[in-house]
Specification:
The complex is a heterodimer of chains A (373) and B (438). Chain A has 373 residues and is an alpha/beta fold. Chain A has 10 helices and 13 strands. Chain A folds into 2 domains: 195 residues, no CATH class; 138 residues, 2-Layer Sandwich (GMP Synthetase, Chain A, domain 3), CATH 3.30.300.210. Chain B has 438 residues and is α+β, with helices and mostly antiparallel strands. Classes of the chains: A alpha/beta (373), B alpha+beta (438).
């Protein structure tokens, strides 16, 4: 009797294990049977209104990285009614599984930002695999073209376009970077407007240039920030340094290089209404170029000059966006976090913001006049 | 006496020597193969002819330091096989221990070598070993209990503990286990350890085998019980926790940061050894997004042309590595060098060039092979080596989740385990040394 029971148990085990083995089959897919998509581009369709053209940039694995000089990519392009449809069709254009786990760049055509942001973003946000890793960039002419650019300096098995945005490669105050989730969060939350970098290529597609940005707001034409304004934005929003100001005084020019910045701001309220923005910027840096001999004793004077210069630039940026009724820094968000929320909070802010006076205090601390004595 | 000889089946090596000098006579009965002939000559035969009467001789015999208690029946026979000499003086019988001890020199430590610290390990003779331990642990509270095994080998085993600090419940449990044991043949302390363990299908050792006298005294000082078996150069330490297996005696001889560093190194090693092969399968076949994109592409590139799925690749390479390890343990030293060279060729570039495995796999297999030797006690290292196949199976079936659940399962299994009433994964945070007061 006992023996029989044991046999039954063993039989049961065998059945269970077999089931498990058969069930597990679907998730298992070897890495060499997958194709890594490193970038997705979305353009408006050229043929039909309201349709999208989706470009996928696939990185082809190479057997030996050492011997390979250029990266090899494959591009899949298809137009469809929505992004999902286009991607599904593109799955039939290749013999391997499309793997979105490494999709680090989503290029969106500027034309789609005015009315279609939610529509376009929805697909990417609902996919769990790239929501947290992908950066969003804007292409002025065509997202496909930007993706197709293959810079000369690019080595095999790497994607230069993402290196603009993460901090492993270049770091510059001219480059704005926005993650997918950040972009969506800022689009949907009140009191802040998302800023997206503009990615451009040169004519033959051998270079990528990122130094401008766009402030996006649902339902209106995106406002473009020039390189200089982008820099001011980065200073204020991300405390980024590493750029310079040219100052003219007493007939000569000096160039001040800013190393570190620290920005603090407060929103002053009176009678439950915002009345002013109080901003304080602390900067440290050094003089990097001058056409005349400078004395260390005069640093105080140069500090003062630099302060005036910085103030001028920052105010220019702030008034420009204020005039456009855009809020990339998130003053409104700050205001919301500091006040008890009721149905009037945002209304009051929106009314006051375009006219809000800005009280700016800049404190520049120059360390030296350069290393030449 | 004839009875005894008959009972021994008239074995060739049983000798009965009559001693006679005038009216005085005596008989000596012993097994030639186990008795030290020279010693017998010196302390028994010579004095017989020098002393005047049998009375003198019998009182001389009674005052010998090696005199043993007289036994009867089967026990007497066992004593004879162990090297005792039966002396009959007229109507009196005496039993004297004149054992011939071979292999009593301590061997250099092979299994647990250290750079500093004692270089000699235990010998194969229990007397020498007890002597070594007594020499190193000069506490009057050190207690040695000798027990005779009931199997065919009739080996004597010694239970050693410090009476002052030993945990009584553990001691009682061990004594009871030894008393209850009825196995036909126990040959070495490794054997004994398995029988003490009492579960039939066990993977992780719950008793520690060591050949180092300093580890023995270290454990004695921490209140553990040490079991020595005659004829076996390893001592059993009980009870043990997992962390005992990760401690090398070297840790006590280095400065604080160095021992901490080596300890961390060992734990990292053990994790690598268990997780790496399974992780390779999980990451390449289920979730390649864990890699950085560069690595993912180069792994994908190096797997180009590999015909079988990743888990077969891993299994293939791991098995080859195990063959290599097993072969180099079993082979005589002179040949084992050849085995490693040939194996190295297969595991090295040839397997990749034949597109049987990827380059990354070679790195993983070598890392796993090296790290599995980081664990100081080889039994634990064997157990860990088996564990990684379990994890590999789980991962192959259920992916990254399987890897995590499998690892959790192993930890739960270890948590559930106990060694003579002590939880196996016990950590003593309060004491400075991990093993204190276990």
């Amino acid at each position: 009797m006992y023996l029989l029971d044991r046999r039954k148990v063993v039989f049961l085990y065998v059945i269970v294990i077999q089931c498990i083995v058969l069930l597990a089959g679907c998730g298992f897919k070897d890495i060499d049977n997958r194709l890594f998509i490193i970038g997705i581009g979305v353009d408006p369709s050229e043929k039909e209104e309201g349709h999208y053209k989706v470009t996928l940039k696939l990185s082809i694995p190479v057997a030996s990285i050492k011997q390979e000089k250029k990266p090899s990519y494959q591009y899949l392009v298809h137009e469809g009614e929505n992004i999902e449809e286009a991607v599904r069709i593109l799955e039939t254009h290749t013999d391997k599984t499309l793997e979105f786990g490494h999709t680090k760049i989503i290029m969106v055509n500027e034309a789609l930002l005015e009315n279609n942001i939610k529509d376009v973003m929805d697909y990417f946000v609902r996919r769990g695999d790239m929501q947290l890793i992908a950066w969003v960039g804007v292409a002025k002419e065509s997202a496909e073209e930007v993706l197709r650019a293959e810079p000369k300096a690019e080595e095999a098995v790497s994607t230069s376009i993402t290196r603009f945005f993460d901090n492993t490669g270049t770091e510059s105050p001219y480059i704005v970077s926005a993650f997918m989730f950040e972009f969506r969060r800022n689009t949907r939350s009140l009191g802040i407007d998302p800023v997206l970098p503009i990615v451009e290529t040169n004519d033959d597609g051998s270079q990528l240039i990122v130094n401008k940005s766009l402030i996006v707001q649902e339902g209106r034409v995106p406002f473009e920030l020039s390189s200089r304004l982008t820099r001011e934005y980065n200073t204020l929003a991300n405390d980024l340094g590493g750029y310079s100001y040219k100052i003219e005084f007493e007939g000569n020019n000096i160039v001040v290089n800013i190393g570190k910045t620290k920005v603090k701001y407060k929103i002053i309220t009176e009678n439950k209404k915002p009345t002013a923005i109080n901003m304080k910027i602390e900067m440290t840096g050094e003089i990097i170029e001058s056409d005349k001999d400078l004395s260390l004793n005069n640093l105080e004077k140069y500090n003062k000059l630099a302060e005036d210069e910085v103030k001028k630039h920052v105010l220019e940026f702030l008034t420009t966006v204020q005039k456009e009724n855009l809020d990339p820094i998130g003053f409104g968000l700050k205001y919301r976090t500091m006040h008890i929320n009721n149905k009037d909070t945002m209304k009051k802010w929106n009314e006051a913001y375009p006219e809000l006076p800005i009280d700016l205090k800049v404190d520049v601390n120059l360390k030296s006049t350069g290393t030449i004595e | 006496m004839k009875e005894v000889v008959e009972k021994m089946n008239n074995s060739e090596d049983i000798l009965t020597i009559p001693l006679q000098l005038g009216d005085n006579y005596a008989f000596v009965l012993y097994l030639k193969t186990v008795v030290d002939g020279l010693k017998l000559q010196n302390i028994i035969i010579k004095p017989f002819f020098e002393l005047k009467s049998t009375e003198f001789f019998s009182s001389y015999i009674q005052s010998l330091p090696d005199i043993a208690k007289m036994k009867t029946g089967d026990e007497l026979l066992i004593q004879l096989t162990k090297g005792h000499v039966l002396i009959a003086i007229q109507e009196q019988f005496f039993l004297v221990d004149i054992k011939m001890i071979t292999a009593s020199t301590p061997q250099p430590a092979l299994m647990e070598p250290t750079i500093y610290g004692p270089q000699l390990a235990l010998s194969e003779a229990i007397e020498t070993n007890l002597n070594m331990i007594r020499h190193r642990y000069l506490e009057p509270s050190l207690t040695i209990e000798t027990v005779q095994l009931k199997d065919k080998s009739h080996q004597s085993i010694a239970l050693i503990y410090d009476k002052k600090i030993v945990k009584q419940s553990v001691l009682d449990k061990i004594q009871k286990k030894i008393k209850e044991m009825n196995n036909p043949l126990i040959e070495s302390s490794g054997d004994l350890q398995l029988f003490l363990n009492s579960t039939k299908f066990s993977l992780f050792p719950v008793l520690l085998l060591t050949e180092r006298p300093d580890r023995i005294t270290y454990n004695l000082a921490n209140g553990k019980v040490v079991i020595l078996m005659d004829g076996s150069p390893q001592a059993i330490v009980a009870p043990v926790v997992f962390y005992d297996f990760m401690v090398s005696m070297e840790d006590n001889y280095h400065s604080f940061w160095i021992s901490i560093f080596t300890l961390i190194l060992r734990y990292v090693g053990i994790l690598t050894c268990i997780l790496l092969p399974a992780m390779y399968v999980a990451v390449t076949s289920y979730t390649p997004d864990i890699f950085r994109v560069e690595l993912a592409l180069s792994v994908a590139g190096s797997r180009l042309g590999v015909p079988y799925p990743s888990f077969i690749e891993v299994l293939f390479m791991l098995l080859f590595m195990e063959f290599l390890i097993e072969a180099s343990i079993r082979l005589p030293k002179a040949i084992s060098a050849t085995a490693t060279t040939v194996g190295g060729l297969i595991l090295g570039t040839a397997a990749t060039e034949a597109a049987l495995t990827s380059n990354i796999m070679i790195i993983i297999v070598s890392a796993v092979a090296i790290t599995s030797f980081v664990i100081p006690i080889s039994e634990m290292s064997f157990a860990i080596r088996i564990c990684r196949y379990v994890l590999l199976a789980f991962t192959t079936l259920f992916g990254t989740v399987g890897l995590m659940l499998g690892f959790l399962g192993i930890i739960m299994f270890l948590t559930n385990k106990e060694s003579f009433g002590e939880p196996f994964l016990k950590i003593n945070w309060k004491s400075t040394k991990r093993e204190k007061e276990v």
